[in-house]
Amino acid sequence: AKQAYVRTKPHLNIGTMGHVDHGKTTLTAAITKVLSDRGTGAFVPFDRIDRAPEEAARGITITIAHVEYETGTRHYAHIDMPGHADFIKNMVTGAAQVDGAILVVSAVDGVMPQTAEHVLLARQVGVEHVVVALNKADAGEEELTELVELEVRELLTAHGYPGDTLPVVRVSGLRALEGDPRWTGAIEALLDAVDTWVPVPERYLDAPFLLPVENVLTITGRGTVVTGAVERGTVRVGDKVEVLGAGTETVVTGVETFGKPMEEAQAGDNVALLLRGVPRDAVRRGHIVAVPGSLTPRRRFTATVRLLSTREGGRRTPVTSGYRPQFYLRTADVAGEVALGEDGIALPGDTVTLDVGLDHAVPLETGLGFAVREGGRTVGAGTVTRVGG
Ligand code: GDP
Ligand code: MG
């Protein structure tokens, strides 16, 4: 039998973010290497984190890689967020679930467009705590590295983070992977910074269970499995659930985390749920597994939206009533139409209040964050301020 997951330490979800090629995946592999040497994790090599693009393109595997490890005080699920603009959608849905982020910035290259875009999105989707890994410190010149550190602190301050005080740790993922003690020590320092800077979040354990579906898999002989992070509440084998979107009720017949069966999954856990008698093609990413009757899908809402400026990769032209982008709400991707207030026009860079009518209903609530996308790029990020209307 598989070894069961034993909850001995608080569980947190963290993720790497930052510009492509600044070393997010290398750093992720290095963290697992250092912790496996310490005996509190399994080494996950670079090419197992950086999954083959064709797999991602077919959409059957997880396009954001999760690895798990433990420090002295915490159990972490670590998401290596893809840096490429095409994958911002996953950055958004992934970032929505992380309790903290490691912003990876190359000490050689400094702040780049995706660095800024990820910081902005992190802020918009409510990532409260950021630790900076100034990576490639093995290759950067001291003076330049100093400048890059100032630049990153400024960027974070400009987006409302405590840029002056948050930890910035100089690391080399590459050298740490090679086992160089100076740089494995730097990874330890980074993990200490994460342990101390990112607090254990308040988990809504008493709320009715809710899990936005990230992926659907079939396990031969066992049935359909959905994966995702529990947003709130708890779930156990035998619990009745509803799959919103699929319009079906079922029973949970298995609960696992990272391949280990667990007695009870809680808010914040990354889990796989086996669902009794649900056909594979009935469930999709974007559906929601919840306590039956606890949620009401809605189409209309009011929101505050910040449109990215053109320089941030946003639109070049204004938005007017009738504009029809895609809305990324939890893991769902829904088209909708926008109505603007009196002025009826919003420019890239503006923060506006607008009414949205989605093409189909999804569970909505005040405070829910979302991304606005069109033609494959993010053009805004918003928060639901009122449901209905
Ligand atoms: P990602 O796109 O942010 O995930 O970046 P990768 O982890 O794929 O790394 C991009 C490139 O930078 C690769 O060629 C790595 O070998 C190199 N790299 C990553 N970390 C370091 C580092 O600490 N030092 C040096 N010199 N190169 C690094
Ligand atoms: Mg990568």
From TrEMBL:
| Catalytic activity, reaction form | GTP + H2O = GDP + phosphate + H(+)
Locations listed in the record: Cytoplasm
Say which species the protein is native to.
Answer: Streptomyces abyssalis
**Principal EC category:** hydrolase
Q: What Pfam families does the record point to?
A: GTP_EFTU, GTP_EFTU_D2, GTP_EFTU_D3
Where in this chain does the record put each Tr-type G domain? 9-202
Where is GTP annotated to bind? 18-25, 80-84, 135-138
UniProt KW Cytoplasm keyword:
yes
Record's SUPFAM superfamilies?
EF-Tu/eEF-1alpha/eIF2-gamma C-terminal domain (SSF50465), P-loop containing nucleoside triphosphate hydrolases (SSF52540), Translation proteins (SSF50447)
| Protein name from the UniProt record | Elongation factor Tu
An example GO CC term for this entry is:
cytosol
Which GO terms label this protein's molecular function in UniProt?
GTP binding; GTPase activity; magnesium ion binding; translation elongation factor activity
Where is it mostly found?
Answer: cytoplasm
Q: Cite the record's note on assembly.
A: Monomer.
The role this protein plays is:
GTP hydrolase that promotes the GTP-dependent binding of aminoacyl-tRNA to the A-site of ribosomes during protein biosynthesis.
EC number from the UniProt entry: 3.6.5.3
- Keywords for this entry? Cytoplasm, Elongation factor, GTP-binding, Hydrolase, Magnesium, Metal-binding, Nucleotide-binding, Protein biosynthesis
* Stated family: Belongs to the TRAFAC class translation factor GTPase superfamily. Classic translation factor GTPase family. EF-Tu/EF-1A subfamily.
Residues annotated as binding Mg(2+) are: T25
